[in-house]
Design brief:
The chain is built from 6 helices and 6 strands; from the N terminus they run βααβαββαβαβα. The mean pLDDT is 89.
Amino acid sequence: MKIPDFITHYYLAERQPFLTLSELEMGENNPIFKKLQTRHKKDDKYHRKYGNNYIHTRKQIEDSLRRLFIERGGKPIRKYPFYFVLGESIWFKNLIEEQKEVKIQLCDLNHATTSFTFPDSYVALSRNDKPFHGKVFLLHELENFIVKYGMPVDDQSLNYQRYWEGDFEKYIEFQIWEDSIVKPFIDAH
């Protein structure tokens, strides 16, 4: 089984890459979040859904994610990470159709500021019924992780009905905890 040698960040075509909801002032009351929260009702190409307490819960999860990463020896520079998937994910890319993407080679990542979870960190740190839940993994552990648990199969069904209720084992999520790796992509936007 070949492990992808890159990670991908997906973002809205009308926005710049590497924006994070956790950094929005006023959290769930921010007009940007309010617009995203209801967009699926007006835009049939937008399948992403957010609960009323999404940002609050997301920040709690990110605090735990950061703490666990530090406990494992990680050296995060940012309070909140930038998110990627290992390789590509057709399912994630089409969660919001017409997204743009940024790809970064694994060999260009900083081991001290890169972590990953399986599945998505929101799910991985919200549940505790699988051996990889509640854990943060380091970049050098990727190959052993995939040998032990396998490479997730990309869900190409593009079924987004109540997607948040499933196992969500569609991709491995990577977190980048520094600005310098993504800055060239922001500057080029």
